[in-house]
Amino acid sequence: MSLNFPSLPDQVPQRGTASSRNIFKSLYLAQGWSFNGEFPNLPKAVVIVAPHTSNFDGLFGVLAMLGVGLNITIFGKDSLFKTPLKGLFEWIGIIPINRDSPHGVTQEIIDIIKQKKQIWIAIAPEGTRKKAEKIKSGFYHIAMGAQIPIAIFSLDYDRKMIHSLGTLQPTGNYEQDLEDILNRFKGKFSPKRKSLLSIPLQKLLKNG
């Protein structure tokens, strides 16, 4: 695998053509960005990406996703699909969920995952671009309930790089697993806007 850009392993859900991937790869690399680390070869995963302080996070993430040909799934409010942008949301890979589901959103997502042979779902664990007080646990409960690994990625604006930080199979001990996850970010991330960095990641910067 190139340091600048990875090749997608065979078990990972894929999208696009060689031509479309080359276009988005070129756009990503033209920004001066690269990719570092091994891309995990998994048919199913909950993908977490941090930090999240700017709309640019989504831009670089989408360019990298389309450039490598990764078919990522995002869950969104079902009301989004009642707008003229329905086709765009479907193309991006957003799956509608009913937030008023009697079984709860987490269980609804777990049920969808279990029905798929291949699915990577992306979640921003901070949950907001604003300065979050803590890491939200939704991603963990989804991975635990679906019995699939968590794939961890970070954005590093100082180095203009996306890092692959490996995977974690949840043990059921959330606090211990979260500490393991956060430790992987040490020295491997930097935000676009430091003033909006979540409190847990701010502590990593101070202690790093």
Walk me through this protein's architecture.
- By secondary structure, this protein is of the alpha/beta class.
- α4 crosses α5.
- The mean pLDDT is 86.
- The chain has one domain (18-207).
- 33% of the residues are buried.
- It has 7 helices and 7 strands; from the N terminus they run αββαβαβαβαββαα.
- The protein has a 7-stranded mixed sheet, with helices on both faces.
- The chain starts with 17 loop residues before the first helix and ends with a helix.
- It has helices spanning 18-30, 55-68, 86-92, 105-115, 138-146, 174-185, 199-207; strands at residues 34-36, 44-50, 72-77, 94-97, 119-123, 150-156, 161-168.
Q: What is the string of helix and strand elements? A: HEEHEHEHEHEEHH
Strand content: 15-25%
Give the total of domains.
1
Q: Strand count, sense and closure of the main sheet?
A: 7 strands, mixed
Q: Mean pLDDT, rounded to whole units?
A: 86
Radius of gyration: 17 Å
- Strands of the largest sheet, in order across it? 1-7-6-2-5-3-4
Bin the helical content.
25-40%
Count every beta strand, where a strand is a DSSP E run of 2 or more residues: 7
Low-confidence stretches: none
Shape: globular
Structural class computed from helices and strand pairing: alpha/beta
The CA-CA distance between the termini, in Å, is: 28 Å
Number of helices: 7
